[in-house]
Amino acid sequence: MGDPEQVKVGIIGASGYGGVQLVRLLHDHPKVELVYIGGDSSAGKSYSDLYPHIGHLVNLTVEKIDLDAIADRCEVVFLGLPNGLACDMAPTLIEKGCKVLDLSADYRFENLETYSAWYKKERHDRAIAATAVYGLPELYRDRIRESDLIGCPGCYCTASLLGIAPLLKQGLIVPETAIIDAKSGTSGGGRQARTHLLLAEADNTLTAYSVAAHRHTPEIEQVCSDLAGHDMMVQFTPHLIPMVRGILATIYATLRDPGLVREDLITIYNAFYRSSPFVRVLPNGIYPQTKWAVGTNLCYIGVEVDVRTDRVIVMSAIDNLIKGQSGQAVQCLNIMMGWEELLGLPQLGFYP
């Protein structure tokens, strides 16, 4: 029997890499009890059949998705589904009194026409979608605290937005000069078998993909526009790099005031993130490595100024599966429930 004071939580769609991270984090969280794992394709299987390494601690069977039954058993539901499915389930769960955290793109967009254009899904949940809050705590903590529906950001978006946010909010750069060059480990492509993610294909090579057409671009632009106070576009190019976990986003932009130096910007970044326990702004001349963030909910940020070109260069490193996905969702849960934001979230990775 679980602790009656623990919040009962469920996960719909926990078979992927993000899902198993979420199971691990929730299992170790002192305030929650994981009581339900659901998924139609794996229904009837023990969760340890999917991930044998956790069978000694997680004794749950994947159940058929039944929204009424889920709402009866769970106060909070995480949706770890492919894009286009959460928006068919969240309204029912919300109406039945559940708090919902969606890890797909379905509730990240203020403009549903933008969502439909990029994700090819017509929406019929506009009233519920209008109540959703973008789940990046460092920018929208107060709104998350009051919401029952969170659209958790994409991994590229998290690294990119945490890196660029102080520059836009403080009006320090020429917005239209912003360029984001990001590199992700192969786990960002999910657990399904795909040729380009095979070891023989992905190892010993580095490649750009979805150039000028990545689905995270409008999501990044939406938040950047909010920070800048006007509509803006961003040049975003993702790359696949031969490692399992981590994202490094490098951001370039022209400074409005060429007199700003690295020390000025580090001071500005530290002030901007002074109440954000998962953001670490690095000292002068120290640049982040993805290995530092792996296994944690941290974002490491390094800042440099090129005095020759009057450009700022910001480097932002996260674990794409933790701060870029499951850990960020748990961070949002902590805020929604009024708990300590750090609760149940790792701050030290394995090194080396």
What characteristics describe this protein?
352 residues; alpha/beta; 7-stranded mixed beta sheet; globular
Mind explaining what this structure looks like?
The protein is an alpha/beta fold. It has 13 helices and 13 strands. The chain has a seven-stranded mixed β-sheet with strand order 8-9-7-10-13-12-11. A six-stranded parallel β-sheet has the order 2-1-3-4-6-5, with helices on both faces. β1, α1 (17-28) and β2 (32-38) form a beta-alpha-beta unit. The mean pLDDT is 95.
If you compute it from the alpha carbons, what radius of gyration comes out, rounded to the nearest whole angstrom?
20 Å
Q: List the secondary-structure elements in sequence, H or E.
A: EHEHHEHEHHEHEHEHEHEEHEHEEH
Strand content: 15-25%
Tell me the number of helical segments per DSSP (H or I, 4 or more residues long).
13
Oligomer: single chain
Briefly characterize the structure.
By secondary structure, the protein is α/β, with parallel strands linked by helices.
Topology:
Layout: E1 7-12, H1 17-28, E2 32-38, H2 47-50, H3 67-73, E3 76-79, H4 86-95, E4 99-102, H5 112-119, H6 126-129, E5 133-134, H7 137-145, E6 149-151, H8 155-169, E7 179-184, H9 199-202, E8 207-208, H10 216-228, E9 235-240, E10 247-254, H11 262-272, E11 279-281, H12 290-293, E12 299-306, E13 311-318, H13 322-336
Parallel strand pairs: 1-2, 1-3, 3-4, 4-6, 5-6, 7-9, 11-12
Antiparallel strand pairs: 7-10, 8-9, 10-13, 12-13
